[in-house]
Every structure is written in C-alpha cells, then in structure tokens.
Amino acid sequence: MNHNKWDVVIVGGGLSGWISAAYAARGGKRVLLVEKADTFGGRAATNTREGVALNLGGHAVYLDGELPAVLKDLGIALEGGNPGSSGHGVLNGGVYTLPGSTMSLFTSRLLSWPGKIALSRIILGVKKLDESRLPAGSLTEWAERCIREPQVRHLFYALCRTATYAHQQDIQLAGPVLRQIKHVLNGGVLYVDGGWRTIIDRLRKAATATGLVDAVSGKVVEQVSAVARLAEDSTEPHESGGFEIRLADGEAVLADAVVMAVPPAECCRIVNGAEHTSLDVWRKQARPVTSACLDLVMRRLTRPNIQFVMGIDSPFLFTNQSRAANLGRNGLLAVSVIKYHGAAAPDAALDRTDMERSLDLLQPGWRDEVVARQYLPHMTVVYDHAHTGRVALPGPDVPEMPGLYVAGDWAGHRELLADAAAASAKRAAEALLQGRAQETLRGVLNGNRSAV
Ligand SMILES: Cc1cc2nc3c(=O)[nH]c(=O)nc-3n(C[C@H](O)[C@H](O)[C@H](O)COP(=O)(O)OP(=O)(O)OC[C@H]3O[C@@H](n4cnc5c(N)ncnc54)[C@H](O)[C@@H]3O)c2cc1C
C-alpha cells in the first residue's frame, strides 16, 4: 500500500468487491481493495486439479441477468458455451428425458399429455412475464395457485431449484424466482471457459488498468470506524470525516468512503457501532442458501448420453460442465454434483452418500473414471436472498453512516445469485459517486467554486 489515504476502501475481493472497484475507478476514485484470502475471487474462485478448472461447485452465468450486463458495461467479454436445455430428470428412481425442447416435449414420458400442455402454458406465461407485475407471496403460494397438476408443479419446483440454487420454495418470493426462470428461458446460461476465476481475472485487469486501483490480498480488515470531525461552523463533532480502516496486522488507512463487499455478519463484526445501524437489521433478516458440492475430474462419462440431470423428487443436480466450456486438457471432464440444502440441518456424510448414489444411477462405474475430486460439504451459495421474512432491502448505502456502502449476493433487491452481487456492487459504486456529486453541489451552493 503506497498511500495512507484513499477515496474508497473496498473490503473483500470477490465478484462484488471487484465490480465496485472497477466502477469507482471509472468514476475517478482512488481505490484500495483489501482481501483476506491469499488469492482474490471469494466464491468465484476456481481450483485446478490435474489441469482441469473446477469452480467451487457448478457455476453458470445467466445470460439475461445483471452479471453479464455489468461485465459488458465494463468492457469485459466472456468466452464459453451455452449447454442448452436438453437433459434428464430423476423421478422415483427412474431416469427420464426432460421436456426441454419441442421434440422432447413430445417424446418425454415424464408428464402426461395434459401435464405437457399445462407445462407449455406455464413456460409461455413466464417467458412473457411483465417485470412490473411480478407476483407477491411465496413460490409455493404462486405455484399452488397457478399450477394445478402436481407432476407439473414438482417439475417446475425442480427447475426453480436449479435456477436459484435454493430449496426453500415456502419462503422464496415468487417474483424474483420467476424473474430468474425468465432469464433461463429467454437467455440461457454460459459455462465460462477457464472457470469463474476468468471473470475475476478480467475484472481485476479492467480495474487496475485505470491506474487508480491498488489491491492487496492476505490482509484481514479488522475494524472500520467512522471518524468524527468538527464541522466548520460548529463545535459539535459529526460523522462525516471519513473512515479509519484497521487491518489485523496493525496497519491502518483512511478513506472518504468504504464499500463492505463481505457477508452481513462480517459487516457487523467489523463496522464499529453496526449494532445501531441497518447493517444489524440486514444481518438478522438474512436467510443463507447452502449446498453440498461434489466436483469431479473424470476421464469420461460411462453413459455419455446423460450430461445434465435434475432431481425431480430429490434436491440434486448433475452436470458435465465440459460439454459447453473449455475447462481443461487431455479430454478430461469437469463434472459437478450438487445437493441443495433445505430447511433440515445438513449432514455432510449423508449428503455425500446421496450424491454418490445418484452417480451410481446415472453413471454406473463412475469411480473408475475419476482422476481427482473436490468435496465441499457446506458451501454458502448466497448469504441472503429475496424471501418472505425480509423486512428491508439491503443497501446500497447504510443510512446511519454516510459514506458506508454494502455489496454482495445478500444485498440483491430483485436479483439473485451472482446477479445480486453484480447489481448491488454497481448500485454501491453509483451511490458512492453520487455522494461526491452531492458534495460538489453543496460546495457550489456554499460559494466554494474550487470544489467543482
Ligand atoms: C456452490 C456455489 C454455486 C454457485 N453457482 C452460481 C451460479 O451458477 N450462478 C450464479 O449466478 N451464482 C452462483 N453462485 C453464487 C456466486 O458464486 C456468488 O454470488 C458470488 O461469487 C459472491 O460474490 P461476493 O463478492 O458477494 O462474495 P464473496 O465471493 O464471498 O466475496 C467476499 C470476499 O470477502 C473476503 N473477506 C471476508 N471478510 C473479510 C475481511 N474481514 N477482510 C478482507 N476480506 C474479507 C472473502 O475472503 C471473500 O473473498 C454460486 C455459489 C456457490 C457457493
């Protein structure tokens, strides 16, 4: 760190931290980004095993969502492939073709004819859904009202689970889930070449290319405190003198503004006086979504016709990410199995057994083809999402602490997953830049033309 004083300090070097940094720098701010891990990326990091890129659990970019829009806005292009909509579903231990295309709608034995017609009607309705008229209430309430056939409802829930990663249909708000399904139906998804670290690498390159961003990793932010300063015309201190950011190694820096791009509980731990602010409300209302992830490097699939499978009556997903993205060499495959956690307390050993049983069904003899594996029993997919218990939308600013902003997948409004991380990061940077515009305007109104 070359300076002690920054326009903006960003705490956290995941997707939301880097997007905030890129936008703040584009607005002319001098930015310091601090990441506690040795490498940047957070949950968008990618490990390499046997030369194959494994994300932390299967990851897909929703092409119609906020993340690709933000990346495009920042001049970042992504390479990869859209895996398409064909696949299989598992119901009562049987493997069926999913009715994902016109052809498979005719041939699939997963639904009766009336069920197929009902599904087509629902899909058409969601595709055309008007954003301003998203339904209120939970996903369960919406589905029970709008989908009468139980088989179709189960299939729709499985689709919602896959698109949102959440197995919480009773508390998920219907509107944001349907918006996400609309993204899937209208834009499809992208499996990213090289894995999601490519996104982080490109964001970092774009941000640092401005010459305004410094980033340090392996440094933990321990405390963020608002610095009281005396107003020119008063003897009363007020909280607009910026922030002091203390690191675990004893170092301290000052900043006019801070973006907290870390989970809500971490915000509350770090920010001095957080218990008296909206940060505490956002922390208390948060309902994280978690899952168990088994990522495999495989020589081949034993049943190559089975590439993507949704559990219809069980909350799991199987996908060969290498069918659409370039993730490795020598023809090795990156295969992900996910078990979505619901309301019950997860059991790591049981989840692993369940996922291995699914593999036994879908890819008999799979163990002989595994070259490397990564088991992540309890990944937090998002720290909060749009659910019925939310009392307030998080961010972008913390109203009780001018100059303090939040970003992250938990700070989404209507957006979900990485789209929430991207949208909230953009909102935080815009609010921060707007803050400067307001200060400048105040300077002009006060006759201080040098502030312009
Ligand atoms: C298994 C799994 C599958 C997923 N699949 C998808 C998908 O298919 N599509 C999709 O859109 N999204 C998906 N997501 C979600 C997506 O990965 C996340 O939304 C996104 O990466 C979160 O970014 P973030 O910046 O909000 O948080 P993080 O990535 O968690 O970044 C926060 C950073 O802050 C750092 N930090 C924390 N405390 C401190 C501190 N005190 N000082 C300094 N640094 C600190 C952390 O080390 C971390 O790097 C998935 C997530 C998981 C876990």
Give the key terms.
single chain, 452 residues, alpha+beta, Polyamine Oxidase, Chain A, domain 2, seven-stranded mixed beta sheet, 12 helices, disordered C terminus, binds flavin-adenine dinucleotide
Explain this structure to me?
The protein is of the alpha+beta class and 452 residues long. The chain has two domains: 5-43 and 196-286 and 387-451, FAD/NAD(P)-binding domain (3-Layer(bba) Sandwich), CATH 3.50.50; 81-193 and 289-382, Polyamine Oxidase, Chain A, domain 2 (Alpha-Beta Complex). Helix content is 33%, strand content 23%. The protein contains twelve helices and 21 strands. The strands form five sheets. Strands 1, 2, 10, 11, 14, 15 and 21 form a seven-stranded mixed β-sheet that branches. β1 (5-11), α1 (15-26) and β2 (31-34) form a beta-alpha-beta unit. The longest helix is centred in the last third of the chain and has 29 residues, at 417-445. The radius of gyration is 23 Å and the shape is globular. The two termini are 29 Å apart. The model is unreliable at 440-452 (pLDDT under 50). Residues 11-17, 34-37, 42-44, 56-57, 59-60, 62, 165, 220-221, 261-262, 266, 270, 291, 293, 379, 381-382, 408-409, 417-419, 421 line the site of flavin-adenine dinucleotide (FAD). Flavin-adenine dinucleotide (FAD) is lined by residues 11-17, 34-37, 42-44, 56-57, 59-60, 62, 165, 220-221, 261-262, 266, 270, 291, 293, 379, 381-382, 408-409, 417-419, 421.
- The CATH topology annotation of the largest domain reads as Polyamine Oxidase, Chain A, domain 2
Going by CATH, the architecture of the largest domain would be Alpha-Beta Complex
Number of strands: 21
Question: What's the number of structural domains?
Answer: 2
* Ligands, ions, cofactors: flavin-adenine dinucleotide
Q: Give the overall shape.
A: globular
Q: Count helical runs.
A: 12
Described by strand count, sense and barrel closure, the largest sheet is: 7 strands, mixed
CATH class of the largest domain: Alpha Beta
- Poorly predicted spans: 440-452
Helix share, percent: 25-40%
Classification by helices and strands: alpha+beta
Distance between the termini: 29 Å
Fraction in beta strands: 15-25%
Radius of gyration: 23 Å
Oligomeric description of these chains:
single chain
